């Protein structure tokens, strides 16, 4: 069975005139689609409830009776909501899911729409299963805990977007710490009754002195058994809070966590300069030392890449689960295998690369195949194109995968409209899904290469407004090379030398990268994606050394931009 990351999580939030789905009505509705651990699509609309909105609700949400009176009728927006809920492998998600589910279900029935038969998850229930017991579990508290931006609180889209990002964080914890892999595993975890304890376990007494000395900084923590053997490595933005959460009175724990806690006889930790450093350090230590509770029942996850081959006369785009130093160009890694398959299909449908084994096609000495006849292949097997013309088409695919080619979305949207106008709704729906998949890919790119070969960048993030400091993260071929915190009194000290040496020198390559290193690249990509709106990413792609360094210097010097942005 595939990973639960291959499913579509439709995170939903409604604002209403009251608490009863039968008596009250929706005033605003939002859906946020999460695929492959990323927010890929969103929809929201006010709704005319044809009911009076009580003053206390209007004050809390900011939705006045005048706004609601001018809003669309609910039957006008339900088809768009239905599109979200009818996506392949869709799951309905909300914070306190019973409330939002019942309101939307009642609204569908009332308007004579068929409500899709899809499973549901409650992010509130998940948070109670995996987070410290003393942490409040409302959206506001969880957003603060996970450092998730919460804009327009108590408005449907603001709450839905925050809940979607909270869900991603929760799913990563569940996958990492509870060995939940498939969607069936996730449903079982969600529905299973968890057990809590009323007093601190014996293991807490054994390591209490060390727990009291834990810092509140980022880092990794290591648990050891009675024989001094490392049995678990974890990471956290706040070491003290994370380790204490294992032993909090009333904490809810899975069987695996119970077994782990009873086995702990010693503890130590390593502070890191950032959360990203902690993530990478944890990944590397698990790879090197293979602690029992990190590896127990854990199947090694292999992530797909899109590969442009180079070992053929006429290269093509294929799916690859191995990342090798074979001079091919790799795009990824992707957590969502369905997205990779969808993008490969889009390439096959819209670009004229070969679809077969070129050498076998030459040997067959036949007429061009059906792909040439329908305009989907340049047919180099029968000399229908030159090598140069074929390489131009390959460059078009490369630009498309790097996110630079937006014309393909416009072209697909035109085709979708024509299908809809001709009442060919099935074909229009397929194109709509393809366009959605492309927007996922392009959201990852943001006019910067997803190709690992060119994934060399500096991420600049604000650190302390009080001390006027910035964090610089230097990424080479998708992996963290170096990080540095700089202040306003020495903003460029040593940076240019590091960049000159790191980004414009050739390093010794490996024949093949193991899955732990691929996981490290995925961790870096995912973390950068989450941080991208908080700072600035500067790529070395298509820049000379001087241009690259100049771009970084200009960003660092512009302190007003960073501190204004923090406010």
Plain-language structure description:
The protein is α+β, with helices and mostly antiparallel strands. The strands form six sheets. The chain has a five-stranded mixed sheet with strand order 3-2-1-4-5, sandwiched between helices. Helix 12 runs antiparallel to helix 21 and helix 18 runs antiparallel to helix 19. The longest helix has 23 residues. The radius of gyration is 26 Å and the shape is globular. About 1% of the residues have low confidence.
Features:
567 residues; alpha+beta; 45% helix; globular
Strand-helix topology:
Blueprint: E1 8-16, E2 26-35, E3 38-46, H1 55-61, H2 65-69, H3 74-85, E4 90-94, H4 97-110, E5 120-122, H5 123-130, H6 139-145, H7 156-178, H8 183-191, E6 195-196, H9 202-212, E7 219-224, E8 230-236, H10 239-245, E9 252-253, H11 255-263, E10 266-271, H12 275-289, H13 292-295, E11 305-308, E12 317-320, E13 323-324, E14 329-331, H14 337-350, H15 358-364, H16 370-373, H17 387-401, H18 407-421, H19 425-445, E15 457-464, E16 469-476, E17 479-487, H20 495-503, E18 512-513, H21 515-531, E19 536-539, H22 545-557, H23 559-566
Helix pairs in contact: 5-7, 12-21, 14-19, 18-19
Q: Strand tally, please?
A: 19
- In which order are the strands of the major sheet placed? 3-2-1-4-5
Q: Give the mean pLDDT.
A: 81
Radius of gyration: 26 Å
For the biggest sheet, the summary is: 5 strands, mixed
The low-confidence runs, each spanning 5 or more residues with pLDDT under 50, are: 507-512
Strand content: 15-25%
Count of DSSP-assigned helices: 23
Q: State the end-to-end CA separation.
A: 46 Å
Structural class: alpha+beta
* Helical residue percent band: 40-55%
Q: Which shape, going by the Cα principal axes?
A: globular
